[in-house]
Amino acid sequence: MATRTAKIASAVGLHARPAALFTQAVEDSGLDVEISLPGEEPVDAASVLEVMTLGAQCGDEVTLSAEGENAEQVLESLAHLLETDLDA
């Protein structure tokens, strides 16, 4: 299983627009991706509701994990997305 950490850059955290953009990118990847905060259970990164319920705020570090072909590249791309202010 590939994993990657990322720091949330969006000022509102993973809510509304940033969560929707992120989950769409996960869906487009074709992989089953999970996201979690330290010490928390991972949630389905393709679900807007689960991602928003995670409660990740600006500056929080999250862990992404996935299995499958190109998982490392997919996680790198998703991490870059999270490290970009998606509200700008």
From TrEMBL:
Keyword Phosphoprotein found: no
Keyword Cytoplasm attributed: yes
GO CC annotations on file: cytoplasm
Name of this chain's protein: Phosphocarrier protein HPr
Compartment list: Cytoplasm
UniProt source species: Arcanobacterium bovis
Lineage of the species this protein comes from: Bacteria, Bacillati, Actinomycetota, Actinomycetes, Actinomycetales
Pfam family, any one: PTS-HPr
Domain HPr: 1-88
Role, per record: General (non sugar-specific) component of the phosphoenolpyruvate-dependent sugar phosphotransferase system (sugar PTS). This major carbohydrate active-transport system catalyzes the phosphorylation of incoming sugar substrates concomitantly with their translocation across the cell membrane. The phosphoryl group from phosphoenolpyruvate (PEP) is transferred to the phosphoryl carrier protein HPr by enzyme I. Phospho-HPr then transfers it to the PTS EIIA domain.
Biological-process GO terms, alphabetical: phosphoenolpyruvate-dependent sugar phosphotransferase system
Keywords: Cytoplasm, Phosphotransferase system
